[in-house]
Design a protein that fits this description.
Length: about 625
């Protein structure tokens, strides 16, 4: 056998690598549809007849006739839209008009695919829809594409008539925008067809949270019929398809229509589902129970079924994905206990892992779970969060909330239950720190939420703070007396001893006491801060390490200054050392006021803070030892 020299072996290996790269590149650039099976917007003319496909009941794909009204070409919109009227089928025969859930319905002319229904003009006397050209949908799904703006105006290639009115221009509004009849002569206003988000297992309060968050994105949360097991269907043009955001005891599935299938690739919706970009959302079968008619916008009442794959792209012109393996989701357990009535409920769900959606979905699920037992009109709520994320140690956080807490935006949406708003607000803060920090996204794996409800009012407010003396020496203790006004119990005093560090220099020091709810106000008053985190681990540690609402925080602000470096604090440094560190280029050192903190657990949610000042005396020198 002939031996191959090293140089020849390298050449062969290089040739093989180049061959693999070329084959991969060719595969990546291979068209998903043959040119002979589609019509571009340039080939479309007014008056052309075609058919569209969608599901209006069950899984049966029905056809409806369409007529091309005109083609709207880009001005500052960046894409084309084909305007069609629907001439037959349920939208006409049953008076449904354009139905929420029809997004993605494929439209063909002469058997060739031109695109998908995506936009509507609600004020037309007959169903009129905007079709996203299939070329734009393919471009949006293919890797490396950069879809442009979704809002703007388009000009018709040639004027056309709608109801006797000459149309020369169309304006495209954002998803969720209120539709208007017209804006200016010869113009119509189109908006993306709303996508129904079918929600089951949740109460009206949770639905209200979802509507406030998702309606501006074009998702319309409505009460659904619940998920189904196996649905006897296949992914084909016109079939109903779902994007499942939550599964388990609660279910949230957005429903649209399949536009095109090529191998394992599925294109749907014809517009963005909720602007997720590159994502991982379960792609599921869907069953349409029927169409709920509405004067404003009818919608498909549907259920999601088995998982068939995953959506990987949610772009301005389409949502697309692949059949096969499902995506990873966040396993979540929510347990709620009413201590007064000895009633408990547990919920097990799986939530889509997406940095812009997970927090909203978790918040709604937590609201629904807490509301399921009926919140007391007053009282206390204890919550324990347990979070697991890839590459990070298990994280826990406990806190206590009271109805008397100041309501925020979420509380205004939910009503008087401010304790719910505070608890879900803290959950959102924890998830946001993990998913949207400057240090990258931590991939959530598991979340546990344990909630205890009680009608007992465990609330206190700090009213007064006193010290036994105002002049101390280094190494001595000073006694603080905090007076609290406790709900339903009157005034309660709490004594705390604070040690002045032996190394404390002469001067003024401040001692502050605050309830956990007011700890940030105390920090601002004493001008003490945490170091800037230099890693995701440090930032999460700071978020989880914040004082709990049922803790009493005692802080001693010293006259000395430490330095911050790489997320850590170096305290009690001599001034000369501090100056040397600050003078070194690239060290990112900044001074921080030295302080000592202690926390004491309390039986109440405590608010309010107080500050007292002390004088630290210097050591007196014995003059008799001084020789002149």
């Amino acid at each position: 056998m002939r031996r191959v020299g090293p140089a020849c072996a390298v050449a062969v290996a290089t040739a093989l690598c180049l061959l693999v790269v070329r084959e991969s590149a060719a595969k990546a650039g291979r068209p998903l549809i043959a040119r002979s099976k589609m019509l571009s917007a340039d080939e479309i003319r007014p008056g052309m007849k075609g058919i569209g496909k969608s599901v209006f009941a069950g899984t049966r794909v029905e056809s409806f006739r369409v007529t091309v009204l005109g083609v709207l070409r880009r001005v500052d919109f960046g894409g084309d839209i084909i305007l069609v009227s629907i001439d037959s089928g349920p939208p006409v025969a049953k008076g449904f008009g354009i139905v929420s859930g029809m997004s993605g319905s494929p439209v063909y002319i002469g058997g060739k695919l031109i695109g998908a229904l995506a936009y509507t003009w609600p004020f037309a006397k007959r169903p009129i829809a905007g079709v996203t050209p299939i070329a734009q949908m393919l471009e949006a799904f293919q890797p490396g594409s950069s879809p442009v703006r979704r809002e703007g105006s388009l000009r018709a290639t040639q004027p056309f008539l709608i109801g006797g009115e000459r149309i020369e221009r169309a304006t495209i509004g954002p998803a969720g925008a209120a539709a208007t009849a017209s804006r200016g002569s010869g113009s119509i206003n189109l908006i993306p067809i709303t996508t129904p988000l079918l929600v089951s297992g949740m109460n009206p309060a949770a639905l209200q949270v979802l509507r406030g968050a998702f309606e501006p994105l074009g998702l319309m949360p409505v009460a659904g019929a619940g998920s189904m097991g196996h649905i006897n269907t296949r992914m084909e043009p016109g079939a109903a398809v779902g994007a499942r955001l939550v599964s388990g005891d609660f279910d949230m599935t957005a429903v649209g229509t399949v536009t095109y299938v090529s191998g394992d690739v599925v294109l749907a919706f014809g517009h963005t589902m909720s602007s997720l970009g590159s994502t991982e959302v379960p792609l599921v079968a869907a069953y349409v129970h029927g169409v709920m008619p509405s004067a404003e916008l009818s919608f498909k009442l549907a259920s999601g079924g088995q998982t068939l794959g995953r959506f990987t792209e949610d772009r301005p012109w389409c949502a697309g994905g692949r059949l096969g393996a499902p995506p990873k989701m966040v396993g979540t357990t929510i347990g709620v206990v009413d201590r007064d009535r000895s009633v408990s409920r547990d919920y097990h769900i799986r939530v889509v892992r997406n940095r812009s959606m997970t927090g909203i979905l978790m918040t709604a699920a937590m609201v629904g779970a807490m509301r399921s037992l009926g919140l007391p009109s007053e009282g206390t709520t204890r919550v324990r969060f347990s979070v697991e994320a890839e590459g990070l140690p298990r994280m826990t956080r406990r806190n206590t909330y009271a109805v008397e807490e100041e309501p925020g935006l979420l509380a205004l949406l939910l009503g008087p239950s401010a304790a719910v708003a505070s608890a879900t607000g803290e959950l959102s803060q924890i998830l946001d720190s993990l998913q949207n920090s400057d240090f990258g996204e931590a991939k959530l794996a598991r979340l546990g939420i344990a909630v205890e409800l009680s009608k007992k009012r465990r609330v206190a407010r700090l009213e007064q703070l006193a010290v036994d003396r105002h002049s101390v020496k280094p190494g001595e203790e000073v006694q603080l007396t905090a007076t609290l006004r406790v709900a339903d119990a009157g005034r309660v005093t709490r004594a705390e001893k604070v040690l002045i560090p032996p190394t404390c220099p002469p001067g003024r020091v401040q001692i502050g006491v605050a309830g956990g709810r007011s700890a940030d106000w105390l920090r601002a008053r004493l001008e003490v801060t945490e170091p800037r985190p230099e890693s995701l681990t440090q930032m999460v540690k700071q978020v989880l390490g914040r004082p709990a609402n049922d803790e009493l925080v005692v802080q001693l602000a010293l006259p000395t200054v430490g330095v911050e470096a790489r997320g850590l604090v170096l305290r009690d440094l001599p001034p000369a050392v501090t100056e040397v560190l600050r003078s070194v280029p690239g060290t990112r050192v900044r001074p921080l006021r030295d302080y000592v903190e202690r926390r004491e657990p309390m039986d109440w949610v405590v608010s309010g803070y107080g500050v007292v000042s002390l004088t630290v005396e210097g050591e007196e020198k014995d003059l008799s030892l001084i020789h002149i």
